[in-house]
Amino acid sequence: MRLFIRSNILHRPIHPITPAEGEMLHDLIVKHGLKKGLEFGTGEGVSSVWFGRAMQKTGGMLTTIEADRRLCKQAEELFKKEGLAKVIEVWRGNAFDFPALDKGPFDFIFLDAEKEDYAPLFRMSLPRLAPGGLFSAHNTANLKSHLKEFLSLIQSNPGLSTQFYGSKAGVSLTFKNT
Ligand SMILES: C[S@@+](CC[C@H](N)C(=O)[O-])C[C@H]1O[C@@H](n2cnc3c(N)ncnc32)[C@H](O)[C@@H]1O
Questions:
Q1: How far apart are the two ends of the chain, measured CA to CA in Å?
Q2: Nearest C-alpha to atom 16 of ligand 1 is from which residue?
Q3: Under a CB-based contact definition with an 8 Å cutoff, are residues 107 and 130 in contact?
Q4: 150 and which of 18, 102, 119, 131 could share a cystine (Cβ 3.0–4.6 Å)?
Q5: For residue 95, how far is its CA from the centre of ligand 1 (angstroms)?
Q6: pLDDT in tens, 5-42
Q7: How far is the CA of 165 from the centre of ligand 1 (A)?
Q8: Distances from the Cα of 35 to the Cαs of 9, 15, 54, 155, 158, in angstroms?
Q9: Domain that holds residue 86
Q10: Is pTM beyond 0.90 here?
């Protein structure tokens, strides 16, 4: 609940994924035929549009979670404008309270929320990641000093294979072994 309040009160600048990061994730979703997506941290909806476009091709659906009501509205308008309203569903609230997590398994999960919450959100959602599914997180290079526990979790688990996309912010790409 603490985070929910914090995200609503402070309208901090949003740092969306870059076009190169978006294109790389879009291509991975299409290549692996990933269909059921979940995103923690919608922001203005830039990343969701990349995932939604990919899932339009795989026949999938994305649920994206955002705590800030103003950003939810803004993102929903963008999805309509992009013709993605049927592919992307926005859930407004605190990611820790997302009621449909057990409706997984998800085969694509993207994490771009508060950095100190990466480890707990990863722990919470890993059991809901399908075998062969991709768990990806943003800012694994530029904010890596805040992500020590998360980075250790994704690299030390023998059931996972992790690589990093070398953009300035950095994107982790963790596949759950089949
Ligand atoms: C960096 S922005 C997301 C940018 C977006 N992924 C993109 O690339 O276009 C992070 C967002 O996460 C939201 N957020 C942070 N913690 C959250 C939580 N626990 N539950 C829901 N949303 C949260 C913030 O309100 C903020 O809009």
A1: 35
A2: 113
A3: yes
A4: 119
A5: 9
A6: 444 445 578 899 999 999 999 999 999 999 999 999 99
A7: 20
A8: 34, 25, 9, 25, 25
A9: 2-176
A10: yes
